[in-house]
Amino acid sequence: MRKTIFDLLDRKGKLPISMLTAYDYNTARTMDEAGIDMILVGDSLGNVMLGYENTLAVTVDDMIHHGKAVCRGAKEAFVVIDMPFMSYQTSVEDAVRNAGRIMKETNCQAVKLEGGREYADRIKAIVQAGIPVVAHIGLTPQSVNAFGGYKVQGKTLEKARKLLDDAKAVEEAGAFAVTLECVPEALAKMITEQSNILTIGIGASSSCDGQVLVYQDMLGYSDGFVPKFVQKYADLHSVMLEAFKQYKQDCEARTFPGENQTYDISDEVLEELRVKN
């Protein structure tokens, strides 16, 4: 049975929530089988699936395409889909329209958007339209150019106060959860304790109500840069690389396909073919 907002909110202060990104049917199925509580179809697909330098080029159509696949694969996990860059920043009307399209066309359970108080009116309007919202504050990748890179947020008094204010604002606007990205542990703990909604950390310590990671990072799928906050649970890049190399060697040596991968034809049929040809 699929998890609901109320199932998740009931976990606050009790049992931490597990969340991972997914972008395809089979990965979502496997995460569901593992009992992962929430799946995020993140606009990080721009980096890890489409090869973009950042998330800014991702479109609503991209999110819907991948979101449909994930929602078909996940039967119990609560699925959240990111609203991509410029799908909600332009106006409240655009925000509601695009959030509604994402939910209607994918059958997801919530949308996620970046920003604090400055986008509280968008969150409020989307929630009033009957669409659950996860907010996202701290390091917000869609603002990478404004931040001057991917940096820890909230380390000065002014910026820490802003994050506390942002967390309060998104809660008041109706978000049921907020992602805290690259936030100092003590500040994340303070936000979590002062919030009635869920805090989902990514680089924000175990003090949060739950955790989220990009699954390619935690599985060691790539040999590229991995953020400090990532725990690698596997080294799939090495496993896949060796498998691909072995496949290439077997093809060139004609040892694949072998007897177990081929099909027979009767001698009688072959003889007939030879006679007639």
Mean pLDDT: 96
Q: Residue ranges: pLDDT <50 for 5 or more in a row?
A: none
Give the number of DSSP strands: 8
Individual helix count: 12
Fraction in beta strands: 5-15%
Task: Break the fold down into its secondary structure elements and pairings.
Blueprint: H1 5-9, E1 17-21, H2 25-34, E2 38-41, H3 45-48, H4 60-73, E3 78-82, H5 92-106, E4 110-114, H6 120-128, E5 133-138, H7 144-147, H8 157-173, E6 177-181, H9 185-194, E7 198-202, E8 210-213, H10 215-218, H11 236-253, H12 267-276
Parallel strand pairs: 1-2, 1-8, 2-3, 3-4, 4-5, 5-6, 6-7, 7-8
Q: What brief labels describe this structure?
A:
277 residues, alpha/beta, 12 helices
Structural commentary:
The structure is a single chain. The chain is elongated, with a radius of gyration of 23 Å. It contains 12 helices and 8 strands. Strands 1-2-3-4-5-6-7-8 form an 8-stranded parallel barrel, surrounded by 5 helices. Helix 9 links the parallel strand 6 and strand 7. With 277 residues, the chain is of the alpha/beta class. Helix content is 43%, strand content 14%.
Question: What is the structure about, briefly put?
Answer:
It contains 12 helices and 8 strands.
